[in-house]
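Quick question about two entries, pasted in order.
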Amino acid sequence: MKQEAEELSVALKGDFGDDITIKFVDVSTDELNQYPSIAGILPKVRLPLTVINNEPRFHGGISAEVITNALKEMQQENQEQQQ
């Protein structure tokens, strides 16, 4: 999963540049303690879990296309709210 996340990071950085930060969290380590709301839902989801802006969005696989589309929709909504 970590390699998939790294590949996703490259793809998203290509599309969004510095507007995006990607972090891989190994849920089998103590690092998960930094994300208590995520730890609470892990029994209900299939890994990998994609979280965007602290909100669980997708689980069970990593799709650069699906994640890119979600991020573009979020960008558009933000732009519309700023107008």
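Here is the second entry:
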Amino acid sequence: MPLSHVWPMSAGIGTNGHLFVSGFDVVSLAAEYDTPLYIYDEPTIRTMCKAYIDACTACGATDAIVHYAGKALLNTAIAQLVHAEGLALDVVSGGELALALHAGVPAGHIHMHGNAKTPRELDEALATGIGAIVVDNFDELRLLIHKTNLRKTPFPIQIRVTPDIAADTHQHIQTGHHTSKFGFPLEGLNQVGELLRNAPGLRLTAVHAHLGSQIFDPATHTAAVAVLVDQIAYLRNQYGIVIEALNIGGGLAVAYTDAQKAPNITAAVAAIWQALRDACTRNGLPQLRLELEPGRSIVARAGIAVYRVVGSKTIADVPRWVHVDGGMADNIRPALYGAKYTAVVANRLTAAIFERFAVSAAIVYTGNGRIGHFFTIEAAEDEFGTNVAVHDMLDEQRGRPSRTVQCASLVEFVRGEPTVSFDVLLVKGPIAIRKTFVTTPARKAAILPARLLGRAGFVF
């Protein structure tokens, strides 16, 4: 029995009433590997990668480049998967750059983003010869001019510009408006042009923008295209800077609840491409190459988090609290801006529904304790030990970069091949969940089943 469109494409309900993904019983996986347990459906990720590639081909943007935004989720297997599907890769730290190279992604297919890159990270990007550094501010630009002054071959850069467009999304995840911490303001492009006039070691190849996250209407992107192409034409006419591409970023929304519907990727890309063609014609420019940077919309639907009920509390006239072994460290979005999620009781999907529960976390600070619960579910009962599965608690949580902490956290990666059960991937990233491990050989042997030791995909 299939589930709604918010769950992985392979998700369904087994004859035993359990949640299944790619043919695997989620309850059985939780029993074997304990909780919290993070599961990604590989076929869903591959399908979403292909959707963007096919959308570019369908609208005629045959030279378009699709970058996977690694901040959504990045580990060795994900990097290898998106590269195999024909996507380039965006990283936002030196640690992520090292991981991408370790995964076999060619340096020329990697872009480095970030509003606070360290001098060391810039040195690593320059030495590695990545495809481009996306420059975010004047301090970074001046530092790069200094570092590349003696280069014989100019190093490719893009500049991130804030087009002063506020996307129709929560203000905490708007990044294209004038007061955003990211990018050069429109009025700063004169200064950018003057600096690049005297920067023989740099070559500006594209203008970049990222407008925010959870954008349901691609009209936001098409409006930004018009603004940014005007700036590209201005830089050419005023400073003789010939730019090859427009990188419009990512941000297309995903569905977290049954009531939400994600934008049609084919239609959205076609609208963006048409807006780019029209803007180039209007400004007398040769056709610019389109670059896209989806992240959340690639991996979000593929992911679920599995928790275990460890307690409850009953109060008159309110939904009963059910406590799970997760917390705010797993996903801070509900506390930050009221994000909503879809959850099910993973081992009772076919049971009669007669009670509504408010699910709370082991790690949480919510003031009065009533507004900060994870989510609400409807289920037959909340028996101790019941598994609660939550759609996409993971994107941009497990993938957040870390410069100083490199820990190993357990992630299940499932695929539908009958001869392969799943890989356990050790993720380089921040300490974000209870299940974190010290990666000494002895400790690794103690926590991982013998049949998994030595398999490909381990990253420390």
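Reply: Confidence is low (pLDDT under 50) at residues 167-174, 363-382, 394-411, 416-460. The domain at 304-389 is CATH 2.40.37.10 (Lyase, Ornithine Decarboxylase; Chain A, domain 1). Hope that helps.
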